[in-house]
Design brief:
The chain is of the alpha+beta class. α2 (67-83) packs across α6 and α5 crosses α6. β2 (90-97) and β3 (104-112) form a beta hairpin. It has 2 domains: 48-144, 2-Layer Sandwich (Alpha-Beta Plaits); 165-249, no CATH class. The strands form 2 sheets. The protein has a 4-stranded antiparallel sheet. Strands 5-6 form a two-stranded antiparallel sheet. The protein contains 6 helices and 6 strands; from the N terminus they run αβαββααβααββ.
């Protein structure tokens, strides 16, 4: 007859084995549903990406004037976003300055129907504030896509083609949030001053948005590490990334 202690040990082994067998059998019957990436709404067919490019004057041997982008975003694009908020599914800003064929540009990029694009482009081309900027030599031209030609129907069509496809498809949602945050910062900083003494000439507009740009830049430089970069890093589990200097950096 086996010792009592030995019998108990064998019984424990048998019970554990039964749990493992039944557990594996149970898990093997679990059905996982097909899960699609989360989207704010279903992007309708027949829609696509459209560009409105503001080409700004950039004289040779001078630094680019970045603060006029804030004016265009706040005074020209924000009213359009408010007027067409139910028709624009995704949108963002793009800012560039390079001594090439495109030069100094501020772009409004949005995903909508050709009809919505046509309305927005007509508004931009007839906007009196933009016309004043053109006549005053601040804006060289406003270049819009042809709404009769839909050439970018897919969500990834304006993303960097060097990225993995997964990032190309997810990135438009990220950059739209960033663009809205930047636009809201401009509106918050400019709001009170515009109510009390709105600028009434090109010179006053330039002076005003230069000050707004400095205030927004100060917020970015002093608060951006924690408010923006730290919390973005947190979403990815604080994993380090390869920084532009080719070294790992956490925020």
């Amino acid at each position: 007859m086996a010792p009592i202690g030995a019998s108990r040990n064998w019984l424990s082994v048998i019970l554990i084995a039964l749990v493992l067998i039944t557990g594996c059998s149970s898990l093997g019957q679990v059905q996982t549903p097909e899960i699609q990436p989360l989207q704010p709404d279903v992007l309708p067919s027949g829609n696509g990406w459209w560009y409105a490019r503001f080409r700004l004057n950039w004289p040779p041997n001078t630094d680019p004037i970045w603060y006029m982008d804030l004016y265009l975003a706040h005074q020209v694009i924000l009213p359009l976003l408010q007027a067409h908020q139910n028709d624009i599914h995704l949108w963002r800003f793009h800012r560039r300055a390079a001594r090439d064929g495109a030069g100094r540009q501020f772009s409004f990029i949005f995903f909508a129907s050709p009809r919505t694009a046509q309305k927005i482009f007509q508004t931009l081309q007839s906007d009196p504030m933009s016309a004043n900027m053109k006549s005053g030599g601040v804006i060289d031209d406003i270049v819009c896509d042809n709404p009769a030609e839909l050439t970018r129907p897919n969500i990834e069509d304006t993303s960097d083609k060097n990225w993995p496809v997964s990032i190309q498809k997810a990135w438009p949602y990220y950059i739209m949030g960033v663009s809205q945050m930047w636009l809201n910062l401009i509106a918050e900083v400019a709001g009170d001053d515009l109510k009390s003494a709105p600028p009434s000439s090109i010179e006053e507009i330039e002076t005003f948005y230069k000050q707004v740009n400095q205030a927004v830049t100060d917020l970015w430089q002093k608060q951006g590490r924690h408010a923006f970069m730290h919390h973005l890093n947190a979403l990815f589990g604080y994993e380090p990334l390869i920084y532009i200097e080719k070294r790992y950096l956490t925020f």
